[in-house]
Amino acid sequence: MNRKEFELLVEDELDRLPEAFAGRLANVQIVIEDAPAPALLRSLGLAPGRESLFGLYDGVPLSERGFNDGGLLPDRIVLFYKPLVRAFRTPRRIRRQIRFTLIHEIAHFLGMDEDEIDELGYG
Length: 123
Fold this sequence. Notes:
Layout: H1 3-15, H2 19-22, E1 28-33, H3 38-43, E2 55-58, E3 75-80, H4 81-87, H5 91-109, H6 114-120
Parallel strand pairs: 1-3
Antiparallel strand pairs: 2-3
């Protein structure tokens, strides 16, 4: 799958998100990058070359914000194109994983930890 086809799938899945998630993304950028940098993987306890990452939430979760946090830069959810298309070969499987990854990272934005996300079925 080429990058443009991938971007279209991401846009389509964003349009299909449940309102409970989509309605909360006013100040969140969805970004597509080719792959996570090795330093990022190491900082997350992953082994570059053996492990990768499909998505990442970068920001301050809503549950950790205080009254004076109004001037924060937009939060970002990054989807990593190359790991996703390598691991999931068909458009159907890529689409399903894009949705799964988006919801997982949005849950982090909302303040959920890995255990809570697992309970929702998006771990």
